[in-house]
């Protein structure tokens, strides 16, 4: 079949649209009609010059929601008509990682796949995360597709597959915040606001938001931020230590800036302060930290997609949204058709959008 998809031709070129050939689903695969897709900074890194990558062209998009239209042989957990969120990290359910209860990083995530359902002018084309959600139709492995309740609006819950999972998951499934603790979130974009949700759902007693853009304060406070700090107003670390009585229990770095990571470690409490690295750091940069900051008992953690097991735990986030417990509605600032996807990324770059959703 034919499908229109947005893709990267190379670094430092504009995102482009073309008509691709799409294979039908093979063993263990499903065909999904995409209904909505969210724009994420990691898609942009394949055409804005910020990532080392050579496998072009590349169909983009790793966040979205749609409806299963066909299933290949051997598919047992999905059938046509199911509402689904395709996810970047598989959950096979049987490997040591999936069975561990400790990580969502299924062993299959790290095994290269040679399957290329998309073709352009006859040549196989790779899709980001083996998904390519900026396409009207995609073919994905069953183990990378999460079934969700049919009453949830696909044009909103599409943002849970990356931003929601990464943000809420970092507080709940990575840091495992306890009720009554304090949290600081550096960077209040699409991910950061979901961290605020996660901290609030964890029962945080204080949520401090830090952002250089004062325009973020209103939506951040609506999401649950109790204190808003702008680094332009002076010593952020000192202000956080004062507000929390010595340092925050948890901090979340959502900017990918090495200098901000230092602040996010230094602002946590001696003895147990925990920093979660979320932002995407430039691959060539080494991180510098004050060794004593760690020896004093602070910890640094990281995770992909908030350490949420993608098929078994993501539906919980959909329930939370449906129960009115998240700020997701306020996060989505723009809905655009696929042919305006370039404009959508421009809005993100200029800081004029919080989350942009493509409606198919
Ligand atoms: Zn993403
Ligand atoms: Zn697995």
Explain the layout of strands and helices:
Blueprint: E1 2-8, E2 16-22, E3 29-38, H1 41-44, E4 58-59, E5 64-71, E6 83-86, H2 96-100, E7 118-120, E8 123-127, E9 137-141, E10 145-147, H3 154-157, H4 163-174, E11 182-186, H5 190-201, E12 206-210, H6 217-223, E13 227-229, H7 236-244, E14 250-253, H8 258-266, E15 274-277, H9 291-295, E16 299-302, H10 314-322, H11 328-331, E17 332-337, H12 341-349, E18 355-359
Helix pairs in contact: 4-5
Bound molecules: zinc ion (2 copies).
Short description:
The protein has 360 residues and is α/β, with parallel strands linked by helices. The chain has helices at 41-44, 96-100, 154-157, 163-174, 190-201, 217-223, 236-244, 258-266, 291-295, 314-322, 328-331, 341-349; strands at residues 2-8, 16-22, 29-38, 58-59, 64-71, 83-86, 118-120, 123-127, 137-141, 145-147, 182-186, 206-210, 227-229, 250-253, 274-277, 299-302, 332-337, 355-359.
Overall description:
The protein has two domains: about 1-160 and about 310-360, Medium-chain alcohol dehydrogenases, catalytic domain (Quinone Oxidoreductase, Chain A, domain 1, Alpha-Beta Complex); about 165-305, Rossmann fold (3-Layer(aba) Sandwich). The chain is built from twelve helices and 18 strands. The model has no long low-confidence stretch (mean pLDDT about 95). The strands form three sheets. Strands 3, 5, 6, 9, 10, 17 and 18 form a seven-stranded mixed sheet that branches. It is of the alpha/beta class and about 350 residues long. The protein has helices spanning about 40-45, 95-100, 155, 165-175, 190-200, 215-225, 235-245, 260-265, 290-295, 315-320, 330, 340-350, and strands at about 1-10, 15-20, 30-40, 60, 65-70, 85, 120, 125, 135-140, 145, 180-185, 205-210, 225-230, 250-255, 275, 300, 330-335, 355-360. The radius of gyration is 20 Å and the shape is globular. The two termini are about 15 Å apart. One zinc ion binds near residues 91 and 92. One zinc ion binds near residues 40 and 162.
């Amino acid at each position: 079949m034919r499908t229109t998809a947005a893709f990267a031709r190379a670094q430092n070129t504009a995102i482009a649209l073309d008509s691709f050939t799409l294979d039908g689903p093979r063993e263990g695969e499903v065909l999904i009609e995409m209904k909505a897709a969210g724009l994420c900074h990691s898609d942009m890194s394949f055409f804005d010059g910020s990532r080392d990558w050579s496998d072009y062209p590349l169909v983009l998009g790793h966040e979205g929601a749609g409806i299963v239209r066909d299933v290949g042989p051997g598919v047992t957990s999905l059938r046509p008509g199911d509402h689904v969120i395709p996810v970047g990290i598989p959950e096979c359910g049987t490997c040591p990682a999936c069975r561990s209860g400790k990580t969502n990083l299924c062993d299959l995530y790290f095994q290269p796949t040679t399957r290329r359902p998309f073709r352009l002018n006859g040549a196989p084309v790779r899709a980001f995360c083996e998904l390519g959600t900026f396409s009207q139709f995609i073919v994905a492995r069953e183990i990378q597709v999460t079934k969700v309740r049919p009453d949830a609006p696909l044009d909103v819950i599409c943002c849970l597959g990356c931003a929601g999972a990464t943000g809420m998951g970092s507080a709940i499934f990575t840091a495992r915040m306890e009720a009554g603790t304090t949290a600081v979130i550096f960077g209040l974009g699409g991910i950061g606001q979901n961290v605020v949700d996660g901290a609030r759902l964890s029962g945080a007693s204080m949520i401090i938001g830090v952002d250089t853009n004062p325009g973020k304060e209103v939506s951040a406070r609506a999401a649950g931020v109790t204190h808003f700090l702008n680094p332009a107003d002076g010593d952020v670390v000192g202000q956080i230590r004062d507000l929390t009585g010595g340092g925050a229990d948890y901090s979340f770095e959502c900017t990918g800036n090495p200098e901000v990571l230092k602040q996010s470690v230094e602002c946590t409490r001696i003895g147990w302060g925990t920093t979660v690295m979320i932002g995407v750091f430039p691959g060539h940069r080494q991180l510098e930290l004050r060794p004593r900051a760690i020896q004093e008992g602070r910890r640094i953690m990281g995770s992909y997609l908030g350490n949420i097991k993608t098929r078994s735990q993501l539906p919980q986030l959909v329930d939370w949204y449906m129960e009115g417990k998240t700020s997701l509605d306020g996060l989505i600032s723009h809905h655009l058709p696929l042919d305006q996807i370039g404009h959508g990324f421009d809005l993100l770059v200029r800081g004029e959008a919080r989350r942009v959703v493509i409606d198919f």
